[in-house]
Amino acid sequence: MDIKSLKVKEIIARGYINPSKLPGYDYVINPYVGCPHSCMYCYAEFMKHFSNHDEPWGTFTDVKVRSYAVKPVPLQGASVFLSSVTDCYNPLEEKYHITRKLLEQLRYSGAKITILTKSALVLRDIDIFKTIQDLTVGFSMNTDNDAFRREIEPGAASVLERLHALKTLKENGIKTWVHVSPVFPVLTDWKALVEMIMPYADSLSFENLKLRAASLVRVLLYITQKYPDLKPLYHQIYNENDMTYWRTLRKEILAFCNKYKLAAAVYFKEKEEN
Ligand code: SF4
Q1: Domain span at 49
Q2: Ligand 1 first shell, C-beta below 6 A
Q3: Residue 274 included in any domain
């Protein structure tokens, strides 16, 4: 979405740090409500129901400019993730610096901090990253093909911008990670992507494309119009709940990563397990 057309509202948060339901993380911080990246498959769209917005998801973002006074959370040894339902380095961060200010407060907390973004703006904060003892900065990437990226993640950084940012972080001694997500059946050339990022990523994880509600309709329509040959496969996975494709792919990915001695985890949640 064009950032100039985005409906932006400054709000007061009920605290920035919330308990996390994500496996492996104690707390999560989302400095923004909403996200201008407008990913076709967005997983965070459910947040609309909790944010008193009638507008379509992707057309608004609330900025948590400050927070009500809340009881401090002891963070020594805790794992903290930024961000789960927004991108903490979305274009509004360039103006508001909310993520930066939070990291300035967190850096001596003793927390283990993990950042995941699709934005090269993250490079702005390398000076702070260098002062945090336990920090990993990751990029979500799911393709090496920028034409495909433009269609599914129109507001996010290009493939080359993310690659360059990943490389710069690595060169600055920051621990890096690439979350290969979401893996689109057939359309994600994950081998080409891994070969491209391999020199710069300290670890990898893989997550499959999961679709529900509006994102299911959007993505299946896109496949029907743009890749009609793939319609039967997507129908098999997303309408018939047949997970054979993911089971096979999980084995292929693990075998490939073992071959190249890459630290990798595969989080292919299968629908029947949800
Ligand atoms: S970056 Fe994340 S939160 Fe933002 S639109 Fe994309 S999937 Fe949704």
Answers
A1: 1-133
A2: 35, 37-39, 42-44, 85-87, 118
A3: yes
CA of 111 to the centre of ligand 1 (A): 25
pLDDT of residue 272: 46
Ligand 1 atom closest to Cα of residue 58 = 5
pLDDT for res 1: 66
Residue 209 to residue 48: CA distance in whole angstroms: 21
Low-confidence ranges of the chain (pLDDT < 50): 272-274
Q: Among 39, 162, 184, which is best to mutate for testing ligand 1, by the most ligand atoms less than 8 A from CB? A: 39
| Residue 140 domain-assigned (yes or no) | no
Residue whose CA is closest, atom 7 of ligand 1? Answer: 42
pLDDT at 270: 65
Tokens linked to 247: 């089971």
For residue 86, the ligand 1 atom closest to its alpha carbon is 3
Q: Are residues 117 and 81 in the same domain?
A: yes
Sheet architecture: strand order including 264-267: 17-19, 27-29, 79-82, 112-117, 135-141, 175-183, 203-208, 264-267
| pTM: predicted TM-score of the whole model, two decimal places | 0.95
What integer pLDDT is reported at residue 106 of this predicted model? 95
Q: How many domains does the chain have?
A: 2
Mark 98-134 as b/e (b = at least 16 C-beta within 10 Å): bbbebbeebbebebbbbbbbbbbbbbebbebbeebee
Q: Atom 8, ligand 1: which residue's CA is nearest?
A: 42
Say if residue 188 is in the same domain as residue 85.
no
